[in-house]
Amino acid sequence: MPNATVASATIRPEEAEHFGALAADWWNPRGSSAMLHKLNPVRLGFLREAVNLHWGADPASLKPLAGRGALDVGCGAGLLAEPLARLGAAVTGVDAAAQNIAAAQAHAAGGGLAIDYRHGELGALGLGRFDLVTAMEVIEHVADKALFLRQLAERLVQGGLMVLSTPNRTPQSRLLMVDAAEGIGLIPKGTHHWDDFITPDELGDLLAGAGLVMGEPRGISFSPMKGLHLSGDLSLNYIVTAWAG
What we know:
By secondary structure, the protein is α/β, with parallel strands linked by helices. It has helices at 4-7, 13-20, 34-55, 81-86, 98-110, 145-154, 171-183, 200-209; strands at 69-73, 90-95, 116-119, 130-136, 156-167, 212-214, 218-223, 227-231, 237-244. It has one domain (4-244): 3-Layer(aba) Sandwich (Rossmann fold), CATH 3.40.50.150. The chain is built from eight helices and nine strands. Strands 1, 2, 3, 4, 5, 6, 7, 8 and 9 form a nine-stranded mixed beta sheet that branches. The longest helix is centred in the N-terminal third of the chain and has 22 residues, at 34-55. The model is unreliable at 1-7 (pLDDT under 50).
């Protein structure tokens, strides 16, 4: 039986409830998760480049993660987990909302993808270790960020790769991601709490505390001409690699 203290250590029930309420609409590219659908190709582009660099994968390979295990934490309904599986990984997805896991399982089955989806607190699930661990737009929603990163680090094999993305805590992110985007409905209201955003320096310190080294962060920016894209501007959102030091 999972330890009750561990099982509630990082999950905020109100956050799980908020995202679980969006589960049925998660795969609708014009629905409440439309911004995630726009963000996902940017994250995947960064991730593919990171995989190529970390393991010397052939840039032309369709399955650079073949033979590797991947863990996607805060997987939602599987927007990232499914592409990871198509890149060849044996994927496990974990989420705090049972509704998201049900939606993820149904969508993966419809696409013929064998993904192991789990509901619950990462530290209480008894999972093994993985070559690749991802947590995209998750750390800003957890109760104990240091504990969460230690749990992620514990799931990473020696020589493995971690990829994280999260909003930066800046005046620009408050204005554009919280006040504007949530105000006009581009992002569901109540999704973000600006005080929980984490700066790259803070994330680097927390990763170091978990025994990990953080790579050079890349910004995820928006412009009318390019839409969402990777850039050197970290003021809104950023994505970064980490590995065991």
